[in-house]
Specification:
With 292 residues, this protein is an alpha/beta fold. It has two domains: 133 residues, Rossmann fold (3-Layer(aba) Sandwich), CATH 3.40.50; 133 residues, Rossmann fold, CATH 3.40.50.960. It is built from nine helices and eight strands. The chain has a four-stranded parallel β-sheet with strand order 2-1-3-4, with helices on both faces. Strand 1, helix 1 and strand 2 form a beta-alpha-beta unit. It starts with a strand and ends with a helix.
Amino acid sequence: MKLGIVDTMFARVDMGEMAIDELKKNYPDVEIIRKTVPGVKDLPVECKKLLDEGCDSCMALGMVGGAPVDAVCAHEASLGIQQAKLLTGKHIIEVFVHENEAWSEKEFFEICDNRTRKHAHNAVLLVKDPEALIKLAGKGIRQGKEDEGSVSKEKGKTGIAFVVSKFNEEMTNRMFQQAKETAKECDAEINTTIFVNGSFEIPLAAKKLLMDKNNDCVVVLGAVIKGETAHDEVIVKTVSKKLGELSLEFRKPVGFGIIGHDADWDTADERAEKYAERAVKAAVELSEALKE
């Protein structure tokens, strides 16, 4: 078998080297031909050339930036790759990694490595042993991160995650302790907790947690105390609006355990545990209702 590998100069990770390393370890009899092009839109023609010249399949390796124009370029490249596949009647495994898939450079590197190595096997098996792929049908195999696994008919525990503001920490710590106790009483599985400086930072952290399929719901906890200006009102209204939008976007409940606006210290202190308890119960109960 002859396999073409085409990567790009634009990528910040040497995905071509990752693919070659995986192939040499597992398929020493496969002949590898590597080419490098400037960017993702150059991948289709180079892959087609390799297929026309005798390669049995190709891997198109590319990194996609986080700007809207990068997404457009990736879409155009994908269309070109599809055309090349149809024209040659051979497989081109598209291995694109988007910068906005990861929250850190370490995570981005791991996604590149995982996706490239897994697809290296796919590029070979599609030609040499397609029957091996049939055995994996319906298994939730995922390239880039851990496998999803097959759908389970069993009803598991509700996965819950927390975002806790450190501002007015004495109060929010009490809220967090109450929230954890309530989650256990509701028989929910506590997964991840992210601590942020203040309530204004909560929506972005909540989005990260909502993206995780292990989390069925997210509960946010904070205390915004009224001062001499309308700052507390601006913060709470802005945050609550964004959290509502995120809940609709990801189709998961967000338990709102943020005290304010227009609450003084004594009022907030009195309500702390109640707000946390209600936020958890609301999120878990809605999550379970949505699953029915």
